[in-house]
Amino acid sequence: MEISKMLENHSIQKDCEGITEEELKKLEWATDKLQQAINNNDRIAASRANIEFHRLLYSNSRNNFLQKTIDSSWLSFRISFLSARNEDVTLVDKSWYEERNNEHLQLIQAIRDKDVEKAIKVNTIHIDVKFFTFLFEPYKALVEVPFPTIALYAFTVSL
User: Fold this and answer.
1) Are 20 and 35 in contact (CB under 8 A)?
2) Hey, is 89 helix, strand or coil?
């Protein structure tokens, strides 16, 4: 996950340097698509829209090697995510998805403002939340420390 985060943050830096208004509109379209899926409680469509958002992020960097490397990393992460759940068990609720989509909107704004530092910070937290949620959420009942405490500690350490 660390390598994926580094590669995606590198592509975000490139996005801040040269993204077009059309590319920003595509990112906004992807967040709209994700919000529609959230509103319809369609987690598969939400996952696909999320993948599309992130794919747009690094395709805007115009680096084919970077795109292929991150694509394979995201594919691996998504396969793990989808295999870790079934239709009767949902690891997170609707508000969790809405918070992640809000992070997408914050990221778009930071890129639009060409604020590399903020964009990377938002993306780092965004990726860490997803990673720690799917790493710890299935086991949180077995741990005496409340889940938010674990996540906050992890964010503090990673930032």
Assistant:
1) no
2) strand
Give CA–CA dist 8/102, Å, rounded: 18
To the question of pTM greater than 0.85 for the whole model, the response is no
- The candidate with the shortest Cα–Cα distance to 96, out of 58, 142, 147, is 147
What residue type is 134 in one-letter code?
F
Tokens of 152: 């906050």
Residue-wise pLDDT tens digits, 61-85: 787 777 777 666 666 555 555 554 5
- Cβ contact 31:53 at 8 Å: yes
Task: Give me 119's structure tokens.
Answer: 């964009």
Coil, strand or helix at 52: helix
Residues paired with residue 86 on neighbouring β-strands, in sequence order: 89
CB 12 within 8 A of CB 123: yes
